[in-house]
Amino acid sequence: MLSIQASGLQKTFSSITAVDGLSFEVEEGEVFGLLGSNGAGKTTTIRILACLLSPTGGTAKVCGFTVNDQPSKVREKVGILTENPSLYERLTAFENMDFFAKAYGVSTQVERNQRIHQVLDFFGLWDRRADKVAYFSKGMKQKLAIARTLVHNPPVLLLDEPTAGLDPKSAKEVRDMITRLGRDEGRAILLCTHRMEDAEKLCDDAVIVNKGRSVAYGSPDLLRQKTSVSPVLEVILKKADARVVESVRRSISSEAVEIDGLKLLVTVDDAESGAPEIVRTIVEAGGLVLSVRTIKPTLEETYLRLIEAGE
After folding, report:
1. DSSP class of residue 123?
2. Is residue 104 within 8 Å of residue 60, measured between CB atoms?
3. What is the C-alpha separation between 134 and 124, in angstroms, rounded?
């Protein structure tokens, strides 16, 4: 089931076009990435989908409701984390959650208490519910900010740079929770980020955005294929032997083979057909192979190549 549909989405501010014909779809239970640098149009897109901004052109639907005609219905279905989430630091974690639960329309105190307990427990913050937010670490504040987006139990989450500024441990905890919210709980999650590590680990599909326009669209593996970069086989040898390396170079090409200690890196047109031939060449030259694996370009490398190609 489609949770988010954007078609030809546009937003201009005076003479500046922030979003320029952006189209994508997010399914229920999917983590979808909007990938791009600062100023690419990601935050503007999220604000349109949350009905904080009106689009200049195109259409967008959230859970079947259009952002232009049914904004109140859309807001009921959406939880949004902005890039700089505002929490009331003089209030406790519970008081923050209770305030936003009221704002989201969770009317009765019994219902609010139950929902706050569930969400804070999910994020491991229930034991700190009576502590003022001012004393929380940055990672704890970020988890509380994400917890706030869930207090009215929305099926769609819009997360803008959820791991920005976090240390590696806190960033991993937030990524793990996003995975649970998407794949385990079935929520549709739109993740805006310029951190390719987050996108690589979390996103089922993504659109790369540059200057408001879509550069490429697809799963991380499909995006890698769009760069037309030949795969590299990493062969670990038991012993570095010049004869072995030379034999591989003769069978492939001198430009396609590199040696780094016991690691042989061979660029091939097709990894599946190339690996057996390379292993056979090494064995016939008297070498011993400990392992073979295909090295794919990282999503960051892919992103940079696609942005450069688009420009």
Report:
1. T
2. no
3. 17
DSSP 68-83: TT-HHHHHHHEEEE-S
**Domain parsing of the chain, residue ranges:** 2-219, 232-295
Range 2-219: architecture per CATH: 3-Layer(aba) Sandwich (3.40)
232-295: CATH number: 3.30.70.3400
Question: Which of 233, 235, 258, 248 is CA-nearest to residue 281?
Answer: 248
Predicted local confidence at residue 131, as pLDDT: 97
Beta-strand ranges (E) seen in 220-279 are 232-237, 257-260, 263-267
* Helix H or strand E segment including 143: helix 138-149
Condensed to tens digits (0 to 9), the pLDDT of residues 241-261 reads 888 888 888 887 655 888 888
Sheet of strand 205-210, all strands in order from the earlier edge strand to the far edge: 78-81, 156-160, 188-193, 31-35, 205-210, 213-218
Quote the tokens at residue 228.
């037309």
310 pLDDT band, cuts 50/70/90, is: low
